[in-house]
Input
Amino acid sequence: MLEGKIALVTGASRGIGRATAITLAGYGATVIVNYNGNKAKAEEVVAEIENNGGKAATFQCDVADYSAVETMMKDIVKEYGKIHILVNNAGITRDGLLMKMSEEDYDAVLDTNLKGTFNCIKHISRQMLKQKEGHIINMSSVVGVYGNGGQVNYSASKAGVIGITKSVAKELGSRGITVNAVAPGFIVTEMTDAIPEDAKKEIAERIGMKRLGDVKDVAETVAFLASDKASYITGQVICVDGGMSV
Output
């Protein structure tokens, strides 16, 4: 489905990013596993992909750093010729009530989640325009659609990602480039591991399918949007939340 494609997945050393990188590689893409701080975890992802017969490489870059992202994109294109698929997955949380939230925690989340998405699209858009092809998938969240108490910064960043998605889809669509967002609900990751079991059960009861999602559920949605099967889908937000937002 993705044979011959070059895919860059940001924040791919763990969680949804890790599952996405492995899934895209499983469909034939050569995957660049971007990470910021945990080189060992990123190399584990590459090793798993290669052990399963796929192709992958790591690339360290803080997506919040405008110049560093520009360099990353140029280096990848120089080595591989093109980037066909960009998955803007890198994200952090600094949860807290608005009254207690520091400016530092607010800025850190917006810089990585929102500005990082802008940086990556900005610095790959010219290459994709030259190619006249490309699939950009931005990782939003259901809290970017509906909000969530204690996550003002995270919700704002993920709502902003939706705005970027819709706007860039209009700008690039005429050149064969699709831009979509995936909005996961409660997915079992390292982030949800910190939630007490009683709270998880309560959350599951509010979900139509009565369970938390798996990273594979999100990764397969990304793979579909990254393929030519979704060539006429752009500017959309797909909630992968088991019916929580219905």
Notes: The beta strands are 6-9, 30-35, 55-60, 85-88, 134-139, 177-184, 237-240. The first strand starts at residue 6 and ends at 9.
